[in-house]
Structure formats: structure tokens, C-alpha cells
Amino acid sequence: MTWPARDEDGFGPEETVALTGVSRETLGRIHSYLAVLDAWRERINLIGPSEGRHLWRRHVLDSLQLVDQISPDDLTVADLGSGAGFPGLVIACAMAERPGTSVTLVEKSVRKAEFLAAAIEEVGLPARVLNIRLEDAPGGRFDLVTARALAPLTKLLGYARVWLKPSGKALLMKGRDTVAELAEARRTWIFDVSERASLSSADGRVLKVSSIIPRRA
Q: Is 40 among the domain residues?
């Protein structure tokens, strides 16, 4: 089984490059990662068989849109709940061109963690895998945290606070319920947030969150 060269609406690699400005070298690494994903997806449940119809827009572009919000000072990135590697492995494909940057993929499933490690090795990415629960954060903290389709914002901010340095920020990808999730999260947390429309979905939003502290009862 192989992926279609383009999405069913015609969107593909060239359009992805035009919208994000990533290099051809990054695009080549993404192609290599997608080949590993293709080889593994029949062995374990990584991504649905119909997702090839919109792989480039819904998954690759959706992930790459975070890269221009990662500053040169964001040397350590943690992707929470990495699953099939969106956005973490795609970000690592782009970060390979930034010396000194590393991406940590956090995934509790043993089989998915094995896939992520195989993709890192095959493509040669500046990344590593932590096969642990999000609640079991290691001692070291990160400049940047990313998460996609992981948990409601209130819970997600709790995870992000544990994994981030005090000066760090989180890039969180949310959907049509963003306004309601923000309102609910503000009942539990005080935080700074900016948001922008997603490049990949009319309903999507990308939140940049920092200075997360619990709200006192």
C-alpha cells in the first residue's frame, strides 16, 4: 500500500511548500517519514486507511504551520501524545536544519513508540522518543511544547505546565470549540494566549500559550 501523490482535492507537496516556505530538503525528509508511516500502518493502528485522501492538507500542512512560530531560542521541543508523528515528526523534519535543536516525542503506547523510533532512525532526525505517560514527566523541562488533538484545553494546560520551562510556550492545535475551551480553561488557569486561524482547516485554531499558573479557588 502506498499513499496517493496528492490529496483528492489536488492539494499536495508543492502547495504545502508554497504555504509554509519549507525547504526542499525538509520536504524530502517528510517524504521519507511518510514512507516509514506507510510501511508500518498495516501493522499497528497509526492512521486510518482513508486518510490518504487528505494527507497533505490535514496532516502535513497542519503540522508544518507550527514551524514559523518556533523561535531560534526554542532549542528543546516536546511533542505530547505523538501517535503517528503529527506534528512531532514533521516538526523534527524541519528542525533538522536548525543546529542544536532537538524534538522529544512523548508517547505512552509501546507499539507507537517503536514506530516513532524507527522513523527517527530511518530519516535521521534530531529527535528521541520517551515511552511514558504524560503524567510522568521527566526532570528536565522544555522550551516549547506542542500537542494536536490530545485533550480538552483545561487538561492540556496542566500537562503543558509540567513539561515547560517557566519561560516556555505551548503551541496547541484546537478545533471549532476553541472559544468554549478557552472560557472553561480560564476557570482553572491563568495564562497568556494568542491565536491564529489554521492553514489547514476553516474551523481550526493554533493557540500560543505561556505563563500558565493555577487559579486559586
A: no
Low-confidence ranges of the chain (pLDDT < 50): none
**CATH of residue 91:** 3.40.50.150
* pLDDT reported for residue 186: 96
pLDDT given for residue 59 in this prediction: 96
Number of domains in the chain: 1
161 and 185 Cβ atoms separated by less than 8 Å: no
* Tens-place pLDDT, residues 44-81: 888 887 888 999 999 999 999 999 999 999 999 999 99
The amino acid sitting at 173 is: M
Q: Using an 8 Å Cβ cutoff, are 180 and 187 in contact?
A: no
How many CA within 13 A on the CB side of residue 23?
Answer: 10
191 SS3 class: strand
Domain of 105? 66-214
27 closest CA partner among 87, 89, 94, 84: 94
DSSP string, 172-201: EEE-TTHHHHHHHHTTTEEEEEEEEE-SS-
Distance (Å, rounded) from C-alpha 25 to C-alpha 163?
Answer: 30
Q: Is residue 48 part of a domain?
A: no
| Element holding 45 (H helix, E strand) | none
**pLDDT value for 83:** 94
